Amino acid sequence: MQQLIVASEALAAGDLTRQDVRRRFVKVHHNVYAPRGMALTARDRAQAAWLWSQRKATLAGLSAAAMHGTRWLPGDAPAELTRVRAGTAPGILIHRDRLVDDEVCLVQSIECTTAARTAYDIGRRTPGDEAIIRIDALLNATRCPVPDIAEIADRHPGARGIRSLRKVLELVDGGAESPQETRVRLLLIRDGLPRPITQIPVRDAKGRVVRRIDMGWPEYCVGVEYDGEHHWTDPVAHAEDITRLEFLAARGWIIIRVSARHLRDAPDDISRRARNALRERGWTVSP
């Protein structure tokens, strides 16, 4: 397993020589090195920044999100720290925020902002729909309730970006299991359709949950599924989709399937198909 090292510690312990460090590792930050060829993830960069701080800083923002298990984070974004006693360093973004004690927790012995505080910070600092996508992923990983984030916002009413955060919180949903699912949901809402429920359970005759639908409207038995590329190119996944769709159809569901191409080139068609299916099942637009 590839691991980051603190060079001075490895040398003092006799685990490595200076030649070993030069030959087998590359510098990430002062005194912090990664094995050559290691592709750094957001989590790796978070841990490297924490080591650079001599293990004294608190991880925040996307770095805290990475430690909480958030997926789909960019591996090349700067690490984010707060409560830093050191100076600055390339590739590290330092925030000078006030943290309340219950806004900090330990994740694998590393001090991080809690999931709620992390979402609060991401929602204030990240522009546009990217904030919703990042918080959706964080909530999906942690199951943090939205009211917990709103409670932190109420503690800091004058914080920069607080109005943007409140707008973001109206649209987040931890049921999204990919950025594209978030984008599809936002498209439907903004085109005037009722807000869809996410991760809808479908039960068999014995009442066991055997399937889940990405999003939809259970009262009308209309669902929307985002299918990644493998659904269209992988024969095994395609065969499973056929079985799945037949199962759902037998239980009265209309499923609107969406691909990356639909989302990119024909977003209006997605809304049109969903709207037509809802109307077929009796939905009418409220005055």
Sheet with most strands: 4 strands, mixed
Please tell me the overall pLDDT: 94
The arrangement of helices and strands along the chain is EHHEEHEHEEEEHHHHHEEEHHEHH
Strand order of the largest sheet: 9-10-11-12
Structural class designation: alpha+beta
Please indicate the percent range of residues in DSSP E strands (runs of 2 or more).
15-25%
Q: Tally the helices: what do you get?
A: 13
Overall geometry comes to: elongated
Q: Tell me the radius of gyration.
A: 23 Å
Secondary structure: number of strands: 12
- Helix coverage percent: 40-55%
Distance between the termini: 60 Å
As residue ranges, the low-confidence spans are none
Main features:
single chain, 287 residues, alpha+beta, 4-stranded mixed sheet, 3-stranded antiparallel sheet, 13 helices
Describe, in short, the structure shown:
The chain is of the alpha+beta class and 287 residues long.
SSE arrangement:
Blueprint: E1 5-6, H1 7-13, H2 18-24, E2 25-29, E3 32-35, H3 42-52, E4 58-59, H4 61-67, E5 79-82, E6 92-95, E7 104-107, E8 110-113, H5 115-125, H6 128-142, H7 146-155, H8 162-169, H9 179-190, E9 197-203, E10 209-217, E11 222-226, H10 229-233, H11 235-250, E12 254-258, H12 260-265, H13 267-280
Parallel strand pairs: 5-6, 11-12
Antiparallel strand pairs: 1-3, 2-3, 4-5, 7-8, 9-10, 10-11
Helix pairs in contact: 3-4, 4-5, 5-6, 5-7, 5-8, 7-8
